[in-house]
């Protein structure tokens, strides 16, 4: 059991029971074959705080992650743009470890840069401003001090606004910016691989930054079907879940 699995952008919520079932089946059936599972952001459609751990839907997912961890698979979770309020109580309940974003790792003999991906969407200036605000520790402290029901109401309103804004934004604005990608690769020592999600534009891209070659692998979202990236000594392969 030496393979490493990567997933992102599952957007799990009560209103998408098929996706939740697909992920639970993946955790019970396929994921135990991995030594390590990385979840690179947006595991949930939203996360209002760790005081919502007892939500029945959350409990299903947390129980399944804990079972996978107890079977010997190491689980690492990175915050996404939807679930950045996940904290240590959540991680402990799952038997997982929270990761910083971005993160450089050694992956079966290759250097790999992991990130959710939203940091590289530099053309979406409005989103980057919002991201800076909600990732501020003081803002999070004040928000988490509000009653849970109030937090959920505010998040619901933000989700509606976000969907409205997407309808008039150009598609290119919501994709990664080439200069931002190159800057991240350059700043972290020219890794051989860059693995991320967020954009919902799965694919594999060959980059050349300052004469150094890097493969950018974009993970698929699970809004329609599911897939995961498998990496081992022989390389990386995307596996679709029928």
Structural class, by secondary structure, is alpha/beta
Shape: globular
How many helices? The count is: 7
CATH-assigned fold name: Purple Acid Phosphatase, chain A, domain 2
- Write down the overall mean pLDDT: 95
Task: Write the CATH homologous superfamily.
Answer: Metallo-dependent phosphatases
* Element order: H for helix, E for strand: EHEHEHEEEHHHHEEEEE
**Number of domain modules:** 1
Number of separate strands: 11
Question: Please, could you describe this protein's structure?
Answer:
This protein is an alpha/beta fold. It has a single domain, classed as Metallo-dependent phosphatases (Purple Acid Phosphatase, chain A, domain 2, 4-Layer Sandwich), CATH 3.60.21. The protein has seven helices and eleven strands. It has a six-stranded mixed beta sheet with strand order 4-3-2-1-10-11. Strands 5-6-7-9-8 form a five-stranded mixed beta sheet. It is globular.
Please describe the topology of this protein:
Layout: E1 3-7, H1 17-29, E2 34-40, H2 56-70, E3 74-78, H3 88-94, E4 96-99, E5 103-107, E6 110-114, H4 125-134, H5 137-144, H6 148-166, H7 178-187, E7 193-196, E8 203-209, E9 212-218, E10 226-232, E11 235-241
Parallel strand pairs: 1-2, 2-3, 3-4, 6-7, 7-9
Antiparallel strand pairs: 1-10, 5-6, 8-9, 10-11
Helix pairs in contact: 1-2
């Amino acid at each position: 059991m030496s393979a490493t699995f990567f997933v992102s952008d599952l957007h799990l919520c009560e209103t998408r029971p098929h996706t939740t079932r697909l992920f639970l089946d993946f955790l019970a059936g396929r994921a135990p074959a991995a030594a390590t599972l990385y979840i690179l952001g947006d595991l949930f459609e939203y996360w209002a705080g760790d005081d919502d751990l007892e939500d029945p839907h959350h409990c299903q997912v947390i129980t399944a992650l804990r079972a996978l961890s107890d079977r010997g698979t190491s689980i690492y979770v990175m915050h996404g743009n939807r679930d950045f309020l996940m904290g240590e109580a959540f991680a402990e309940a799952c038997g997982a470890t929270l990761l910083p974003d971005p993160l450089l790792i050694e992956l079966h003999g290759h250097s790999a840069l992991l990130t959710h991906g939203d940091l590289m969407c530099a053309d979406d200036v409005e989103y980057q401003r919002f991201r800076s605000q909600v990732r501020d520790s003081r803002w999070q402290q004040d928000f988490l001090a509000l009653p849970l029901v109030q937090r959920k109401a505010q998040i619901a309103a933000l989700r509606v606004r976000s969907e409205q804004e997407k309808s008039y934004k150009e598609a290119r604005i919501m994709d990664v910016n080439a200069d931002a990608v190159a800057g991240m690769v350059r700043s972290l020592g020219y890794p051989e691989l860059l693995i991320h999600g967020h954009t919902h534009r799965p694919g594999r891209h060959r980059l050349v930054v300052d004469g150094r070659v890097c493969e950018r692998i974009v993970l698929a979202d699970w809004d329609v079907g599911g897939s995961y990236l498998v990496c081992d000594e022989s390389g990386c392969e995307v596996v679709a879940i029928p």
